[in-house]
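$ ./design --mode recover --in tokens.txt
reading tokens...
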């Protein structure tokens, strides 16, 4: 059975396009995975550097630090994933353009959009996965990381005694040891300030040597002092003393034991329910429910405030029947049956003065009440906006992946440079601009300057036309980022100036020759 010529050509084209798509995918997946883990590692190092003071010297197990870094890595994915997509897109298409592979593919009749098609499908799948990650994994990782980070920050330093240095690791004591034995657990040259009564350096103990032993349940330390002296300033609260009287007590001992409670030094996990209602730990459904509940509560509070203000502040002196007949709304308060001016004019001067004083006091108390309620309303609205911002953040991550791909792929095709040189510089520059716009919009939404919708999507609004413009320029083989394109007018101007100077010099020379010839004649 013979296949028609048209079907044969179609099958050949289909096989060619399929091989092309596989080639493009293989060229893109490697740089994507590599740049993602590099970006995540750099951001994780920044996180570790930020909280290094909370981790050093507290005796954490390696698994605790590893768990914290794992949860921190999950929280840094929204930054690492868009950056890796942007960088890998520029690298992939830059390599194709630099090796003239992109030109060869285009010369066979395949457009840039068709070349990008398999990557568009792949990045769309990554964007869908990013939405699932931000909606389901991020709340869980944020809850775990916030709880663990809270415990890490509140963990007391590890109990360690260093020679010649005062140590405050044990709560209520400040201790210095002159020398430690490397063979036994003996300490020599002990000085201890007892601050358990919170009355300053009132009790001081000096000892020739000491031993420090931890109990079996790891809750107490038994500090045994040998051949020492205890000095204590006696506080006499009942008897008045002159300025020159400083009573104190001195005690010389051969052996003295101090029981120190160290139960607070152990690492304890907090209850995660303390943080589970935070907006960063909620998914889309929980955020929708919380936003709706907070909106209803805020609306009821505003209505109650309006009614309470009209009832107890504006018309406080009216009788119950008259006050109940007063009509008021959110925008206006009016009395329909009373003529205030006529009532006031019938009063005596003394009565008018009293009325004015009472009105002034009522106005001041009402102003104070409104100011306090205004602060409360601002706080409630800010809390509501934080939830709305977090709701929009679930979608901005997915859209950022797709948007930065349509910026990175055309840029790579235009600049025609691969590797980790120029692509890294360009991608970091664009990502920093994108990040600054995103953070500025989010901050404006938090303070109430912009709405959460505008604040969270301002970066997409700015970069979407740029992505469309770059895609169009790359599809039409534009040389918008070619340096020679911008230097060409300057070169023409310099060449024109050089020619003009030569012409002027030539004319001057000819004029001089003509003048010399005319003088000889």
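writing sequence...
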């Amino acid at each position: 059975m013979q296949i028609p010529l048209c079907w044969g050509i179609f099958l050949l084209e289909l096989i060619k396009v399929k091989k092309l798509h596989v080639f493009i995918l293989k060229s893109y997946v490697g740089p994507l995975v590599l740049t993602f883990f590099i970006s995540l590692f750099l951001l994780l190092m920044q996180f570790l550097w930020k909280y290094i003071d909370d981790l050093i010297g507290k005796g954490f197990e390696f698994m605790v630090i590893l768990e914290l870094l794992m949860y921190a890595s999950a929280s840094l994915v929204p930054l690492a994933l868009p950056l890796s997509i942007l960088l890998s897109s520029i690298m992939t298409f830059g390599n194709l353009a630099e090796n003239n592979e992109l030109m060869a593919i285009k010369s066979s009749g395949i457009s840039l959009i068709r070349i990008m098609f398999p990557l568009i499908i792949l990045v769309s799948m990554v964007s869908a996965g990013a939405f699932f990650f931000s909606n389901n994994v991020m709340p869980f990782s944020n809850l775990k990381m916030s709880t663990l980070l809270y415990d890490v920050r509140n963990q007391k330093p590890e109990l360690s005694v260093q020679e010649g240095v005062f140590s405050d690791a044990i709560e209520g004591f400040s201790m210095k040891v002159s020398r430690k034995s490397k063979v036994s657990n003996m300490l020599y040259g002990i000085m201890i300030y007892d601050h358990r009564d919170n009355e300053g350096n009132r009790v001081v103990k000096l000892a020739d040597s000491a031993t420090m032993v931890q109990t079996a349940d790891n809750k107490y330390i038994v500090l045994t002092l040998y051949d020492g002296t205890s000095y204590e300033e006696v506080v006499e609260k009942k008897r008045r003393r002159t300025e020159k009287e400083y009573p104190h007590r001195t005690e010389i001992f051969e052996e003295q034991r101090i029981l120190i409670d160290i139960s607070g030094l152990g690492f304890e996990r907090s209850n995660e329910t303390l943080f589970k209602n935070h907006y960063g730990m909620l998914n889309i459904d929980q955020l929708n429910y919380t936003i709706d509940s907070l909106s209803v509560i805020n609306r009821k509070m505003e209505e109650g405030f309006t009614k309470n203000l009209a009832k107890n502040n504006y018309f406080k002196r009216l009788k119950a029947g008259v006050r109940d007949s007063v009509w008021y709304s959110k925008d206006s308060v009016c009395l329909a049956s009373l003529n205030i001016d006529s009532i006031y004019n019938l009063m005596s001067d003394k009565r008018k003065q009293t009325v004015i004083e009472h009105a002034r006091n009522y106005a001041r108390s009402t102003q104070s009440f409104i100011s306090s309620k205004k602060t409360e309303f601002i706080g409630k609205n800010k809390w509501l906006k934080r939830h709305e911002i977090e709701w929009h953040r679930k979608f901005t991550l997915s859209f950022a992946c797709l948007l930065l791909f349509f910026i990175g792929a055309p840029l790579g095709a235009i600049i025609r440079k691969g590797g980790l040189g120029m692509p890294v510089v360009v991608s970091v520059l664009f990502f920093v601009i994108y990040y600054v716009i995103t953070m500025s919009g989010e901050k404006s939404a938090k303070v109430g300057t912009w709405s959460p919708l505008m604040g969270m999507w301002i970066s997409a609004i700015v970069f979407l036309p740029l992505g469309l413009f770059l895609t169009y320029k790359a599809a039409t083989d534009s040389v918008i980022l070619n340096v020679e394109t911008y230097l060409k007018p300057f070169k023409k101007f310099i060449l024109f100036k050089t020619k003009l100077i030569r012409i002027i010099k030539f004319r001057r020379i000819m004029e001089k020759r003509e003048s010399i010839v005319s003088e000889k004649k």
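exit 0
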